[in-house]
Design goal:
This protein is an alpha/beta fold. The protein folds into 2 domains: about 5-130 and about 275-330, Quinone Oxidoreductase, Chain A, domain 1; about 145-270, Rossmann fold (3-Layer(aba) Sandwich), CATH 3.40.50. The protein has 9 helices and 16 strands. The strands form 3 sheets. Strands 3, 5, 6, 7, 8, 15 and 16 form a 7-stranded mixed β-sheet that branches. Strands 11-10-9-12-13-14 form a 6-stranded parallel β-sheet, sandwiched between helices. Strand 9 (about 150), helix 3 (about 160-170) and strand 10 (about 175-180) form a beta-alpha-beta unit. Helix 2 (about 120-140) packs across helix 3 and helix 2 crosses helix 8 (about 280-295). The protein is globular and about 65 Å long.
């Protein structure tokens, strides 16, 4: 019986609930693949799952005990009945398949993508979830057009850095908020047009100044509770606020009248899973992202690689909003 070291929670709650356990690896089911993880990405969704925020979420149903982690890269260790396109030792990556904080994970074949030779395991694990998020936000949900103006919160974060680059590839003007001069430099190097240090200046006033009082076409809102009201105000008439995260706290209620008063704006709270609903979509997004990397149009900033046992440290860095790049777990 193969043993599987995993970082797991027995109950929802704080970081102390995340503990190392040695589990027995199950056999793969029909259409499933056992992936021997080389690297696993650390993401905010892992924190939401640890705290039980997504316990009743339709797109990400969870049950306890729960091995955390939604993104990984490694090699095929075993295939289940019905697997047609993958074989032993194939290099693969995936996201939105719970259990990546572990040496092995059982993943449906349709969620896996084969890695081209020019993509290593580190970059694959860093790209799948956050890269797919940035891709669907800029290419599908609100497909940016040339000369449109967007506001990206947390531009030096993992998703923020990718959003800046993809928005610029689509010809948009990018305004972004950052929490420090160091983070501002990162956003500037990635091509952001306007850097807004939100601890020093009011981002709404800066947006209005930069847009001659009109506001932006879209706000990519990942901070949540602390910024949502001013994000509404920063939009042009009939603009769109995309609330895809809440690093400062959950937005528990919205007054529709505030949306009308802000200029008949639109608000959406999407799940990545709804934009990764089949293998063709997943592979198309991955293919685009891999191509951007190959052609030096997209850079990935891996801030720190931690051992599996230090998963708690990685989550603490995310929760404190002190990170400025991708955090990974190394599983060798």
């Amino acid at each position: 019986m193969t043993k599987n070291r995993s970082m797991q929670i027995q109950s929802y709650g704080e970081i102390e609930n995340l503990i190392m356990r040695e589990l027995t690896l199950s056999k793969p089911g029909i259409g499933d693949v056992i992936v021997q993880n080389r690297f696993s990405g650390i993401n905010f969704i892992d924190i939401y799952m640890r705290k039980g925020i997504y316990a009743k979420n339709r797109a990400y149903p969870t049950t306890l005990p729960l091995t955390l982690g939604m993104e990984g890269a490694g090699t095929v260790a075993e295939t289940g009945p019905g697997v047609k396109n993958l074989k032993l030792n194939d290099r693969v990556a995936y996201c939105l398949s719970p259990g990546s904080y572990a040496e092995y994970n059982i993943v449906p074949e349709w969620k896996l993508v084969k890695l081209p030779d020019f993509i290593d395991f580190e970059n694959a694990a860093a790209l799948m979830l956050q890269g797919s998020t940035a891709h669907y936000l800029t290419h599908t949900l609100f497909p940016l057009k040339k000369n449109q103006v967007c506001l990206i919160h947390a531009g030096a974060g993992g998703v923020g850095q990718l959003l800046i680059q993809l928005a610029k590839l689509r010809g948009a003007k990018v305004l972004t908020t950052v929490g420090s001069n160091k983070k501002g430099k990162i956003a500037d190097e990635l091509g952001a047009d306007v850097i807004i240090p939100y601890n020093d200046i009011d981002f709404y006033e800066k947006v209005m100044d930069e847009t001659s009082g009109l506001g932006v076409d879209v706000v990519y809102e990942s901070v949540g509770k602390e910024t949502i009201e001013q994000s509404f105000q920063s939009l042009k008439t009939c603009g769109t606020c995309v609330l895809f995260g809440f690093s400062s706290g959950v937005v528990s209620s919205i007054n529709p009248q505030e949306m009308a008063d802000a200029g008949s704006i639109f608000l959406t709270r999407p799940n990545l899973a709804d934009y990764m609903s089949n293998s063709n979509i997943i592979r198309k997004r991955a293919s685009d992202l891999f191509s951007y990397i190959k052609n030096n149009k997209l850079r990935i900033n891996i801030e720190k690689i931690l051992p599996l046992v230090s998963a708690s440290e990685g989550q603490e860095r995310l929760e404190s909003r002190s990170s400025s790049g991708k955090l990974l777990l190394h599983l060798d």
